[in-house]
Amino acid sequence: TPLLDKSHYDAAKPEFSPAWKVWHSIFFIVGGWSFVFGTWMLLGYPEWDGRLYYSALWYTIGSAGFLCLDTQEAVTYAQESKWVRMNIMCNWWGSVLYLVGSVGFFPSVYAWSDQIGIQGFIQGSFVIGLSHRIGTVGGGFSVERLWGSWDKKTATLVEMGPCIGAWCFFIGTFMYWHWPRGDNYLHV
Hints:
Helix 1 (18-44) runs antiparallel to helix 2, helix 2 (51-76) packs antiparallel against helix 3 and helix 5 (115-137) runs antiparallel to helix 7 (150-178). The protein is elongated, with a radius of gyration of 18 Å. The protein contains 7 helices and no strands. Helices cover 74% and strands 0% of the residues. The termini are far apart.
């Protein structure tokens, strides 16, 4: 990931400014924790009627956080190599699909078509999972890269976290799509 590669360190670049780093961290934290809260609302309170609305709301907030993060990176790294830009744009498109999917899980939209939320999450997870998988192996994945220098370890782990999360959401949404839905447990 270009964020952690110090070989081209230039204090004048925006990604090295404290404000850029703070906003980048905030977007990442909002995105990640909102998905945790969205899942907790959905699965933790099966008898509560508001769970569907608030789960969709948390997912929408999280998706917006990830989209802001990816937009920040796309603008910052617009002059990087085409592979870096392509990887960032895959994340951006995956976040757009997550945002569409999140809105698709609001009860009023879900009642109209359950496929907006389901397909938004499945396709967004696939694109993000693939992008971060490529980001994990982009520098030649090896045990040395994972356990070598602190920068290489951090860069690999930064890519692996979203990769694992995206594939978990891919599998979970796919299971939800094909799970028997007669008991109204996760449905409007």
